[in-house]
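Issue 218. Parser rejects a valid record. Input:
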Amino acid sequence: CFCERCLARFSGETGIDLPDGPVTARARLLRGELREEWTRWKCELIAGTVASLRAAAERARPGIEVMVNGVALGRGDYGNADRGGDPREIWHGTFDAGRWIDQVHRL
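Output the parser choked on:
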């Protein structure tokens, strides 16, 4: 998402100042020169959300398995990973997906 709220949150949490101007120009910067930083931040954000959901599910029903239904990768991300493979392997080193996710299914 490249809405003003997400862009401001990215800047605030990473300390990276984005230039003023149209969202399209800032999105190009994030998908280009700042792609690594943007991707790392988004993965950490998603991982935190998954961890919170898993904890809530576990409290409600101990032993429950959690599945993340959706892996949004851009063409070229993680070695063109949208062509297949286990996302837990793709994300290795980005965050510990296996810690929060029991099942992963490709869409």
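Fixed in the parser; the record now loads. The chain has a mean pLDDT of 75.
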